[in-house]
Amino acid sequence: MNDMKPKRFAGLNGALMLRRTPIALAVLLAQGMAIAQPAANTTSADVIDATSLFETGGQAGIGPRPFTSFLSRISSPVSKIELKVAGENLPADGVSPTEVSMQLLDKDGLPVKEDVEVTIEVDGGARVLMPGRLTSESGADRGDIDRITPGVQQVVKGGLLKFKLIAPFKPDPVTLKASVRGVGQKVVVRYVPDLRDFIAVGLIEGRLRSDKFDPKQIVPVREQDGFDEELKGFTKDFNGGKSAFGARAAVYLKGKVKGDYLLTLAYDSDKDTSKQLFQDIDPNAFYPIYGDSSVRGVDAQSSGKLYVRVDDKLNYLLLGDFTTIDSNPARSLGQYSRTLNGVRGHYEEGNVIANGFAAQQALAQVTDEFPARGVSGPYSVSNPNGVTGSEKVEILTRDRYRPTNIIKVTPVSRNLDYEFEPFSGQILFRAPVPSFDDQLNPVSIRVTYEVDQGGDKYFVYGGDVALKLTDGLTVGVSGARDENPSAPYEIMGANVALKLSKNTEIVAEVARTNSVVNTNKTVGFNSNVSSTFANKIGEFEGTAGRVEIRHADEALRYKAYGLRSSEDFNNASSGITGGRTELGATGAYRVNETVTVTGELLSSRDRILGSENDQGSLAVDLRMTDRLTVGGGVRRVQQNAVSLTQTTASTCSNSVGGVTTAPGAIAGYNTGYGISQVGNQSIDPATGLPVVCDLSINGNPAVPPQGLERTAIFARAAYKVTDALTLDGELQNVTGTDASNMYRIGARWAATETINLSAETQRQLGGSDAAAQYRLGADWRVADKTRLYSRYERSSQYAGAYGLGVGPVSSAFSLGVDTQYMEDGSLYSEYRLRDAGSGREVQRAVGLRNGWRVAEGLRLTTNLERLSATTGDATSIATGVEYTASELWKASGRVEWRQDPNNTNLLLTAGLARKLDRDWTLLAREYASVVKPRTLLGVDKLQSRFQVGFAYRPVDNNQFDALGLYERKTDRDRTVGAQIDSDTDIISFRGNYHPSRVWWLSGRYAYKNVDEVLLGTVNDSYRAQLLGGRVTYDVTNRWSLGAIVSVLEGSGGDRQYAYGLEVGYVVMDNLYATLGYNWRGFSSSGTASGLTGNDYTNRGWVLGMRYKFDEDLFRKSESKVNKTLDPSVMTP
Asked: How much of the chain, in percent, has pLDDT values that exceed 90?
């Protein structure tokens, strides 16, 4: 269950996380044999707490950890950290400081007297101001004593540190975290909208035009004249289409109204409402760099023409884009997650929290999940018509022994963690996504997005209420309904959270769904490929329920849960599929200082597929001396044939639906991964495994045994030879399937303060070397919270927990980076170019993610995987470097290579941002993807985009500025029936010259050349270029005169001209009237359509009127604005 996250407790020695976490895990988890399984000397709960995909502990969500293991742990001078924030519901104004008090306590609850280095981290755009500093830690006067290590490092004296937390600009919860060698504490600080002064900006304009050309004889790319864009929000044609009137209104305002409310409003009658949800700045649109270091952001996000939001402390009412997901931890089965445009309200007052939403739209939700491949991508989704901005991308980690169990979900952010490649818009991550974590739990990518299905709009609505009846009892109800005529859906739920004591809590929940599936498979809007609904068509109703209890005190930690869903339960957001029963209990009991008892019991049933999986263990460990620990216990695993899965990640590949989508296409992971338009190898959420394995490509994978039933009685011991070397061993008597006696020998060595090595082997007594299993591990702590790790495992192929699997052995090797720190919005500061580029824009152009810092401003990314299984071998190698230390230039580059039985893939990206001097800035970047087939049916594929842009923006004046771009795109695909062979060159330049107050001159040049091969044999080439200019002269303070001229040259050398004049007059303050006439004009199409952009010149005249206003328009009743109300304030 993906919502079951373990709690950290003081009985665990936290320093192991810092120095020996990976090595200890390699040994601990090796006790049973497979690296991803629970340590044989512990329960599956004995895992380091983790907060990101790349941290140690793929099973972090299974349960609480025991107090001790019989392997030693390193002590920390700090046992507890207390954080106190002076205030709550603070204003999110971006500047206000709030005092934070941090106290470090030892094991006796007293302040730590010695000096201790602490790491402080914060997210949500908040900043930290250390004592005695003039600026926050993102400014020039930084107090960070270790700028290589992520976060802010500070020495705490006498156990007490006070600092300031600077508010963010957005009213979101902020997580503040402090940690000392594995001992950590988090607090969540709530920020509410800042009741700022009222601001407004807007315009109202109208335009009347009359064309000399017959509109039936021209087909403009966009309805625009030579001087201004055509108004399309309101238009009226007359005179046979030769004349038209258009009007537009646009406004943005934000500020305090009615005393206690914050109003945000945006409206644009000309806004294109069909493009995307949650519209954001696209770093790949227009020019790559603008030479402007100002910070740009997006507010009032709405795919409609109107956005309204009214805030009152924690309450708000919104008309715009929103997500429906609820943060209530007790709501899992009844969760409803959509991205919509409509009305949403949130109420939070006293003991009541309520949400409601309603939308009228024509969107349908699609969810794709596919395996990660050890590289950044590109990865495709199944439907190419997804609505931009609606996607929710998550990286999932599944339990290798129970793939239906999602043990970790890591959401990622667009333009920060991933982007869209420039050819077909596939997902490209900014760091390699490993095929499995450091415990060999499989990793997958889940993308949930909206698709415009067309047709009439329909309503989607729902809501939820949580009522706190007492201090310990909270009840909640929820419901949602989608009236999509093609895929109607309804869900209802109820939940209870009961806190029995400060150490014990219970959560119970029920949910019901009603859905229609597979009635329009050709369209695909209600198709369900999961085995849960295989061969089912029509309307189905299902229910699900769960109950969970948690307890944690100084002597006992445990968690128990039960979950059951009916066969027709259907909610992709719940983390559970229909027809399942999950039961589990795990815990640890410290009898005294020397004896610890740990145990777990897990049971899983799939009533549709018929899979059964039971596992349990009970162990007692006795600490004999400071160096010797002994223990023993019993383990049992029972699985039928259906539930047996491979221990290591499979290289199995398949196409969508088990068939190729184009003649000659490779039915491998390149079907959607790499250069392809269709979906990746799909994962069935009901099984957690690929839907189909194409045997024609993967050969004949080994057939698992009919079932597995093994019971083991074991005894073990660990001896600390020196402070750096620990030896451990185990004897195990196994009965049942493939009965045997086994022994295991392992060693762990702390070679240096930062390097740890581990090794172990497990064999049958009298068994052959071919059946022996091994594990090797190495870890290098390169920083306080960053390590390089490597693992090699050779283990039984058919999974059984605790190393009780059977069958042939397979091997896997991985090398990666584990970084355990929160991502902070202030990190953008390291990407800023002096006076040339804001941190966010430069990071989007050249930034990498999830690397490890070698030095200040130097970050590396590393990933290496090698899988060997009956389905074939797969190897992936990825490395990257990023440099941000200089204020004048930033750069990054990466190379990723992957090979499996079907294809060899190569991905290359590089980026450079350079401040040439005070006025000139340059940015260059390259993207290349290559596919080389390894089968007879395969074809070569190549995509490459090189782009270089410059900006000239004088720092001291604005007399002249210019932007330029050159781009070269190459696309090759030899797939039969879908051949692509093209080379495209694009040049674009824009400049503005302002020699004096009255003169304004602007010019532009655009060029496009395309060489391509049509139908595989016909060579074709065409080109076009455009040159244009405009001059404006202010005759007086009210009168202005303007002229334009443009020339368009096509492939044959034919030229078209456009030129005209415009007269402008300031009727009154902020009201401007224009009259323009074009003597000649042209329309662009084909290649030239990419050159004219927003300018279309048409022969004829145009009359326009424009009025702009600000907040003073709404303050006519105030004497300081309307001075006629009080003549004494008027200037003589």
From this structure: 20
Rounded to whole angstroms, the Cα distance separating 156 from 162 reads: 9
Residue predicted with more confidence, 842 or 538:
538
Please, is 991 exposed, middle or buried when counting C-beta atoms within 10 Å of its C-beta (0-12, 13-18, 19+)?
middle
Measure the CA–CA gap between 207 and 220, rounded to whole angstroms: 18
Tell which residue, 511, 503, 583, 590, has the closest CA to residue 543: 511
Size of the chain in residues: 1132
> Exposed (0-12), middle (13-18) or buried (19+): which is 1116, by Cβ within 10 Å?
exposed
Please list the residues that pair with 924 across neighbouring strands.
912, 948
Q: Per the structure block, which two tokens stand in for 123?
A: 């997210």
Inform me whether the pLDDT recorded for 520 exceeds 60: yes
| Separation in Å, CA 573 to CA 265, 356, 361 | 32, 18, 21
Q: Could you tell me which of 94, 286, 165, 138 has the C-alpha nearest to residue 832?
A: 138
Residue 436 DSSP symbol: B
CA 79 from centroid of its chain's CA atoms: 34
SS3 readout for 169-231 = CCCCCEEEEEEECCEEEEEEECEEECCCCCEEEEEEEEEEEEECCCHHHCCCCCCECCCCECC
Contact 178, 83 (CB under 8 A): yes
Using the CB atoms, write b or e for 655-669: b if 16+ within 10 Å.
bbeeebbbeebbbbb
Domains of the chain by residue range = 80-180
Determine which of 641-655, 923-937, 976-990 has the lowest per-residue pLDDT on average: 641-655
pLDDT at 554 over 50: yes
Kindly compute the dihedral angle of the four CA atoms of residues 108, 110, 113, 117, in this order, to the nearest 10 degrees: 90
Least Cα distance to 47 among 434, 506, 407, 443 occurs for 407
Strands 980-996 and 999-1014: antiparallel
- CATH classification code of 80-180: 2.60.40.10
> What does the alpha-carbon distance between residue 479 and residue 502 come to, in Å, rounded to a whole number?
31
Strands 999-1014 and 352-361 turn out to be: unpaired
Residue that is written with structure tokens 């957001």 in the block: 573
pTM score, two decimals?
A: 0.79
The tally of CA atoms less than 13 A away on the side-chain side of residue 155 is: 6
Whether residue 478 contacts residue 331, with contact meaning beta carbons closer than 8 Å, is answered with yes
CA–CA separation, 879 vs 892, rounded Å?
11
Pair 876, 810: CB distance under 8 Å: no
Extract the tokens encoding 685: 């959420």
Residues 6+ apart with CB under 8 A from 150: 121, 783, 785, 786, 819, 821, 853
Q: How far apart are CA 384 and CA 575, in angstroms?
A: 25
- In whole angstroms, give the CA distance from residue 635 to residue 629: 19
Per residue in 626-659, pLDDT (tens digit) is: 889 999 999 998 888 777 654 444 444 433 333 3
Residue 599 to residue 1085: CA distance in whole angstroms: 72
Measured CA to CA, the distance from residue 601 to residue 256 in angstroms comes to 57
Structure token pair of residue 1107 = 């009025």
Whether the Cβ atoms of residue 1053 and residue 1059 lie closer than 8 Å to each other: no
For residue 1066, the cross-strand partners are: 1072
